[in-house]
Amino acid sequence: MSFVILAFISVLIKCPIMALPTCLPLESKALYVPSLTSLAETLNEGLKSNFAEVSVEVVECPDLTQEPFTLASKGLGGNPKIIELGGNPYLLPLVHKEKVYDLKNIAKLVGSDPAFIIGAGAGPNPYIGVNCEGIYNLNISNGTVNQLSRISKIDKNDDKSEQITLPNTETRAALMANLLITEGKPGPVIKVHVKRRIGEDNFITTIRKAIEKKYQDKNVGMGGVFVLKEGKAKQHVMRDFSKTPIENEEQLNNWLKFYNMSAPLIAVGTLVNADMDLDLRVQHFHSFSHHGEAGHYHYDTTPETAEYLGYFTLGENIYRIDRPINTHSWGRD
């Protein structure tokens, strides 16, 4: 009987029985994948409520290793998966410093090789020595890493943000991450190009709400990259870990450091249209730049000049890894 129980547990946590002490709990669900044509029509209609100029179409993915995107792989195609790793309760009210994840192992856990990984999370604080934002952008193929991820941290001397590119030897994330994992192949994607924000919602929230409205009874997940081509954006960078508990949104916003960062900003992340009974963060995008600014995207602060260009793909499955047992719903903006 004990062997049967152990075998059942090993399936739930996706690892060999002998490795149980070091394994991560994993839950997965299949996602609804509408046609890209249908999705383009949905987004075109939804974005018109918030932007003066809107163009949404299905195209072959351009080479995303080139400017303005400068990603680690050319495309978003090949077995696309949406990943949520850890969660905000590992940061708030007080940090769980033991929650550090190697993305090479996460790729193996979900069966992705090659694995093109982009997304938003907390950066590898053991590497840099302080809490930081993670802007993930790497390719792992047969054990070889092409690491173009950045972190953003606060300089304790002047409170300015500092962007640092991670080396190929550093593939960890900490506490939480929302990731798109694909094989980085060419293929059809959704191209979204909008200008001049006329509503209150940010770019990603507008996309997510359009999907929520259209596919109310379906589970839909999407990930990709966008560039804020013109204007500025409100973004935050986390300070070093708080020594006193952060218990609510007001305390959280006082702890975070907010900046008005300049375009061009290249943002990567994921969004979903529902919690799916998995305690999901419904949207999460971080941006990096080639002028030293990087952080967690909130919204553009120059609506008259704001211009976004993005490429997105739909996830086929969602994987919830190491979901916090004791959870809360705040601090997920």
From TrEMBL:
Protein name (Swiss-Prot/TrEMBL): DUF1907 domain-containing protein
One Pfam family from the record: DUF1907
PANTHER family named in the record? ESTER HYDROLASE C11ORF54, PTD012 PROTEIN
**Could you tell me which species this protein originates from?**
Phaedon cochleariae
Quaternary structure and partners: Monomer.
Keyword check for Zinc, yes or no.
yes
One of the record's GO cellular component terms: nucleus
Q: Which SMART domains match?
A: DUF1907 (SM01168)
Is Repeat among this UniProt entry's keywords? Answer: no
Residue ranges occupied by any DUF1907 domain in the UniProt entry:
42-321
**Compartmental location:** Nucleus
Kindly list the GO molecular function terms attached to this UniProt entry: hydrolase activity, acting on ester bonds; zinc ion binding
| Major subcellular site | nucleus
The residues the entry assigns to the signal sequence are: 1-19
Question: The organism sits in which domain of life?
Answer: Eukaryota
| InterPro entries with a match to the protein in the record | C11orf54_DUF1907 (IPR015021)
* Keywords per UniProt: Hydrolase, Metal-binding, Nucleus, Signal, Zinc
